[in-house]
Design a protein that fits this description.
The protein has about 250 residues and is an alpha/beta fold. It contains 9 helices and 12 strands. The protein folds into 2 domains: about 160 residues, Molybdenum Cofactor Biosythetic Enzyme, Chain A, CATH 3.40.980; about 70 residues, Alpha-Beta Plaits (2-Layer Sandwich).
């Protein structure tokens, strides 16, 4: 199962607001031993949103979508999700009950519009103000406000994906290799990938405070433990000094 995220809103792309959702999704998934495979940022462009959702609906991925589910003119997500799924919008009875309970005698038709979801959707409870989100085709549509959205995605993971939860399943280890470039480590990295298919190998070059490469592995925790030992041995065999990534590389006087 791959997990993806879509963050919708012109305010993100214009820089008016900074996205906080992607880091939170990564953190929330990691607590369950899961990982984020991809993330898309979209402006308030209905045609683009529909095209993106058509593609992601077909992927089978589980996707968290943030923003645009309100009833103001710049909120397009509900309508676009319906169009991408080839269905209409209708007031969801469970959403209506939640919204009526929230507003009581102050209920209005415009407020009820926030409960009009694509036909076939299920609601996602909103513990902050009772205005629900909705799910459709393994996509989970929540508001753009973190105080609402983050408890809602936690609820989704517990309700639909508890069977996948395996805290501690994903591990990561890395070392700092000094005095070399990435190209000198390519053969070693390919050997590690071949021996440990449950891991990804990464290299992150740095020029300051001294030229070095952070070389590491991420993936199945059991394989990571052995894979990093082989990387350490391989780097030593190439004649390059290394230290644990949590320890700064040694500095040398000019």
């Amino acid at each position: 199962m791959n997990f993806g995220a879509i963050v919708i809103g012109d305010e993100i792309l214009s820089g008016k607001r900074q996205d906080k959702h992607m880091p939170k999704v990564i953190e929330t998934l990691a607590a369950h031993g899961l990982e984020l495979s991809w993330c898309h940022y979209l402006g308030d462009d209905p045609a683009l949103i529909v095209r993106t959702l058509e593609r992601t609906f077909a992927s089978g991925d589980a996707v968290f979508s943030f923003g645009g589910i309100g009833a103001t003119p710049d909120d397009h997500t509900r309508q676009c999700a319906a169009a991408a799924a080839g269905v209409g919008l209708a007031l969801h009875p469970d959403a209506e009950a939640e919204i009526r309970a929230r507003f009581g005698d102050e209920i209005t038709p415009k407020r009820l519009m926030m409960g009009e979801f694509p036909i076939g959707s299920e609601i996602i409870p909103n513990p902050f103000n009772r205005i629900p989100g909705f799910s459709l085709h393994r996509h989970y549509f929540v508001p753009g406000f973190p105080q609402m959205a983050w408890p809602m995605i936690a609820w989704v993971l517990e309700k639909y994906y508890a069977h996948l939860s395996a805290p501690g399943r994903i591990g990561e280890r890395s070392i700092i290799v000094t005095g070399c470039g990435e190209s000198q480590l390519i053969d070693l990295m390919n050997q590690c990938l071949a021996r440990y298919p449950g891991c990804k190998v990464f290299s992150l070059p740095r020029m300051q405070p001294e030229r070095h490469v952070e070389l590491g592995v991420r993936g199945d925790a059991a394989q990571v433990t052995t894979a990093i030992l082989e990387l350490q041995k391989g780097v030593s065999g190439l004649g390059f000094p290394w230290s644990d990534a949590q320890t700064p590389p040694p500095s040398r006087s000019p």
